[in-house]
Automatic annotation (TrEMBL):
This is Amidohydrolase family protein. Pfam families: Amidohydro_3 (PF07969). SUPFAM superfamilies: Composite domain of metallo-dependent hydrolases, Metallo-dependent hydrolases. It comes from the Bacteria. Residues 47-532 form the Amidohydrolase domain. It comes from Dactylosporangium aurantiacum. GO terms for molecular function: hydrolase activity, acting on carbon-nitrogen (but not peptide) bonds.
Length: 538
């Protein structure tokens, strides 16, 4: 039999992704056969000895933002800023170094780790970079801050928003802080004006995916007007590319409905629409009423430790209400009736809804609306599910929806959740709870909000350790085989594609130089459709 024979490796083969030493034969663009050490390998044209290596199915990232990642290479990275003063100093230095740039874009700020617990105001940005158009984005890409000149050019009063999306001072004047829909529309306008080839920038981000063993990347949001650009990008041989279409006005705006979704191909998957049911920091959460006192006390302790009122001020500003012995953080973006009608329209049009739901209140709404809209099993995806309770998990399981969660959030947002005390009342990134309830679970990155590296995300799903070494609800850990399956076989199936090292399936492979759960291991070779591809992980 002609083809390429891999020998000497540990192969994570079959639908269960159970690792075992053996061999793997690829012919054409497909997997022809696999075998264990006790099975003689067949002859082949090419033989590759991979002693000590592991061959995994190609990773399928069902939720990332390659377009945003591409633009970040042209801006200022604020991931290392530790407080507001350091951020302002860095912004001022960047503005002085590039005085002619039409926009100064700053990314990955983490104000939830700063003592002040807020982004700069427009006045503060004006003080360090007078007259400049500046946009500072939080790492979750749900929150930002703009300078006065940016507010003028954006037409801050014309940005569509729900109540509270544009922060105002006591006299009703915008402070420069933007949330959710207002932030998303500001980001879209800033990127439209910024110099740079969006298609080329996205291509570079996809090349990085390929170098990390990602053989199928699913872009979680594309504006309808950029659909043709995605079709051109999808014509490249690797990685496979698919996407969901969202609102034309901006990433976080209400969905435009099925009539606005382009016809035809959506790359390597079916037609899909993106809906945001809640926000990032402002996610819709339901807690026991007794949590109010404990969370407030925790905020006081954080303020004392930080020697700054920021944590307490942040807690007091939450939009909360008590309903039937439950504390609701009321950040839902749709009413139940609006969402059910919208889902019914998408389903009737043959478009799969993908719903952003971080909090359990949003996940509860998603699952209930799917059942009310008559969604069949597998017809929709619920993304994130960061905060859960047992009753909501049961609703998600009954809805038949696919679930996607990001184990890398344990490093990005885990300390914020644990330090705030929410983990005392809710399950955080509950992979075990979802799997045990029978929910079809996939892993993803949500990069840049979470780390892109698939090997790192596998390890987070299994080890659940925060950057400071603290475990985060270790009982929610997946087994290694479960984690690999969720990032490969189940992830591919959720996009309507075959996945896994199974005879007859596409030969999409991630070849590692050791055990994938060893922190020193790296992906060294990536194969898509029977061909080795090369990208850049820089």
């Amino acid at each position: 039999m002609v083809g390429t024979l891999f020998t000497g490796a540990t192969i994570w083969a079959g639908p269960t992704c159970t690792p075992q030493p053996g061999w793997l034969l690829v012919t054409g663009d497909s997997i022809a056969a696999t075998g264990g050490q006790d099975t003689p390998p067949p002859p082949a044209d090419t033989m590759i000895d991979l002693a000590g290596c592991h061959i995994l199915p190609g990773f399928v990232d069902t939720h990332l933002h390659a377009g945003v990642v591409g633009w970040q290479t042209l801006g200022v990275d604020g991931a290392a800023w530790t407080d507001l003063r350091e951020a302002l100093a860095a912004i001022g230095a960047a503005a002085a170094a590039d005085p002619r740039a039409p926009w100064l874009l700053c990314w990955n700020a983490r104000p939830f780790r700063w003592p002040q617990r807020r982004l700069p105001t427009a006045a503060e940005l004006d003080a360090v970079a007078p007259g400049r158009q500046i946009l500072v984005s939080g790492v979750d890409v749900h929150r930002g801050a703009v300078s006065t000149q940016a507010m003028r050019s954006l037409g801050i009063t014309t940005l569509r928003a729900q109540a509270g999306d544009v922060t105002r001072d006591r006299r009703g004047r915008p402070t420069g802080e933007l949330w959710e829909q207002a932030y998303g529309e500001a980001l879209a306008r800033a990127l439209a004006d910024a110099p740079g080839d969006a298609e080329q920038l996205t291509r570079r981000a996809l090349d990085r995916c390929a170098a990390l063993g990602i053989t199928h990347a699913h872009e979680a949001y594309v504006a309808p007007q950029h659909h043709e650009r995605m079709l051109r990008l999808a014509a490249a041989p690797a990685p496979r590319l698919s996407w969901a279409v969202g609102a034309g006005a901006g990433l976080l705006s209400p969905a435009d409905g099925p009539a606005a979704a382009p016809e035809g191909d959506y790359g390597a998957s079916g037609r899909e629409a993106k809906l945001f049911l809640d926000g990032g920091d402002r996610c819709a959460v339901c807690l026991p009423a007794r949590a109010l006192g404990r969370l407030t006390l925790q905020a006081v302790r954080e303020s004392v430790a930080a020697r700054h009122p920021g944590p307490l001020r942040d807690a007091v500003r939450r939009r909360s209400a008590v309903h039937r012995r439950e504390l609701h953080l009321e950040y839902l973006r749709y009413t139940d009736r609006e969402l059910t009608g919208l889902l019914a329209g998408y389903l009737e049009a043959g478009i799969r809804p993908r719903m952003h739901a971080l909090g359990n209140l949003a996940a509860r709404q998603a699952a209930t609306a799917l059942r009310a809209a008559g969604a069949p099993p597998g017809a929709a995806v619920i993304d994130h599910l960061v905060l859960l309770d047992p009753a909501t998990v049961d609703l998600v399981a009954a809805s038949g929806a696919w679930a996607t969660y990001q184990p890398g959030f344990i490093t990005t947002f885990g300390p914020q959740i644990a330090d705030g005390g929410t983990d005392r009342f809710l399950t955080v990134l509950g992979g075990r709870r979802l799997l045990d309830a029978g929910v079809p679970l996939t892993l993803a990155s949500d990069h840049p909000a979470g780390p892109l590296d698939p090997l790192g995300n596998l390890r987070h799903a299994v080890r659940r350790t925060m950057p400071d070494g603290r475990p985060l609800q270790p009982g929610q850990a997946l087994t290694p085989a479960e984690a690999v399956r969720a990032l490969t076989v189940t992830a591919a199936e959720s996009l309507g594609a075959p996945g896994g090292i199974v005879p007859g399936h596409p030969a999409d492979l991630a070849i590692c130089d050791g055990d994938p759960f060893d922190p020193a291991t790296r992906v060294t070779r990536t194969w898509v459709a029977g061909r080795e591809i090369r990208g850049t992980a820089s």
